[in-house]
Design a protein that fits this description.
Strand content: 25-35%
CATH superfamily of the largest domain: FAD/NAD(P)-binding domain
Helix content: 10-25%
Order of helices and strands: EHEHEEEEEHEHEHEHEEEEEEEEEH
Structural class: alpha/beta
Number of helices: 7
Shape: elongated
Oligomer: single chain
Radius of gyration: 21 Å
Largest sheet: 7 strands, mixed
Amino acid sequence: MIKKSQHYRLLILGSGPAGCTAAIYAARAGLNFAMIVGVEQGGQITKTPKIANWPGEPNDISGVELMEKIMNQVRNFNTNIVLDTITKADLSQRPFCLQGESPNNEYTCDALIIATGASPKFLGLPEEQKYLGRGVSTCAICDGFFYKNKNVVIVGGGNTAAEEALYLAKLATTVTLVHRRDTLRAEAWLVKQLQQTPNVQFEWNSVIAEILGNDAAGVTGVRLRNIERDISKTIEVTGVFIAIGYQPNTEVFSSGLEMANGYIKTGASGGVSAANIAGVFAAGDVVAHNYHQAIVAAGSGCTAALDAKKFLESGVVG
């Protein structure tokens, strides 16, 4: 089969708030570009059940609804949206060469915006993969329905853990939030809501030492260890939700870009979003920062598009 190679002045990888905003600004700038959406269209935000802090949305909106609105705006510009996933990237030559999921799909570009987002982290317990989909989940909005009137546990201490605990509390009988510290890192208003929710309980200074279960029933409980007092206890649950953060989806670019813990380093001479290779820009959760918010990702997508436009107009491209 003949390899199909397609060239664009600019390629945008990702379809979350960062990728979509970059696409909107690239379209307004009249650039010849395509947006490759990847496996998870809309990004991690589509798993958020309720968003109350998006400017211009005075009422609560789900992540799915918000991203559909943003994607409709992207489509209004007749954007070339490509349904594919990049599996290999050669940034050592110009134009940059990227390979799609099929070996026959090849893309080249003069400038590249990486907005591939991040994926959920796991605890590293062997039982996680064994019971994944059979009691272990990383997405409350995806799987919460299956735990209606059941007891569940959620691990984490940030906004994601708090939001998912509140969502699960509407369905489950009890929600036990396990955190290795004695206070949550989540925003104060989320913590207050948790404290006011009667069926949410807390296990402070604790970790999950083991997920219990069997082949017939799946998850049946967890063994917790209090790391401060070094004592263990077992609680019966049928669901374990992991909400301990994300790993940036940057592995395919690890050979050429400067990174820190998997996050792309930016701020090179090409602009705020510029990576160490001229013509490569990064936006959203692939960039290391402490603000894992959709609005921040969207803003960085705008910055990346403007930086890419400036680069393409500079005449540096060979």
